[in-house]
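Aim 2, interim progress. The first record below pairs a target sequence with its structure tokens.
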Amino acid sequence: MSSEQVIKSSMVVYAFDSLINRLNGQPSPPIPADFPTEPYPLFVTWKTSSNGYLRGCIGCFADLELGSGIQEYALTAALKDSRFPPVQMKEVTGLSCTVSLLTNFEDCSNAYDWNLQNHGIKIRFNSNGRNYSGTYLPQVATEQGWNQ
């Protein structure tokens, strides 16, 4: 099943509810009944609504149950992404959220073996004995004006 078939607006609502409840010191919201039961790797991205600036993006490549996974990574991306200060309650109404479910992983045969519209990029390399990695979701290439 492709991620387009399972993405639901309730996933984004659940991410917002999870963040708002945490910031207000309230219990976690109940997991919506319409969430699929299949586990998926996922990322949660927070951006400012006014200008689209990234405010946090963290996820996981392991298959996760969607309720606990969305909640965990909504909070981690908003509150623990080391690139940004933690989101504060006064910012929440000015944020947008994207939940990305990752599917159909495939290896590339070369640096140009990917499609701008459909593929994300996961990079790993070693430089001077240090390991580095980066993940770029499919929408990043077009948002940043990349080409191959």
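The second target in this work package is listed in the same format:
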Amino acid sequence: MKTFILLSSASVLAVSAPVLAAPQTQYSATTFQTQSYSDKNMAYQAGHKMMNKFSNMSAQQLREELPILEPELDQNSVDIKDMNLQVQKVALESGKIQYRAIVDVDYNYTYNRGGDS
């Protein structure tokens, strides 16, 4: 009888372990900004250039650019879901207006975490 209980407990643990270590998806967002420009159109162009740069990056490159600190990251799972561009008016000095692009990036990634989390 003790052997049966021990084997039953071991099989429950063996079945539960993969469930506890199942991949999980993290959704996050961050903001990037360009330098300031004297012309609003130049700021838009810089913002679009930044967005194109992110769009053309591999998952590994995105991992380096985005603020991801997950130690159990699936290296190929980083993916941009959405980006938005806005141009912000900035007063640097009295009477002097400049513009900078603000790029909001929504992204996700997958990580594996064991049952001890």
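The chain is about 35% helix and 35% strand. This observation will shape the mutagenesis plan for the next reporting period.
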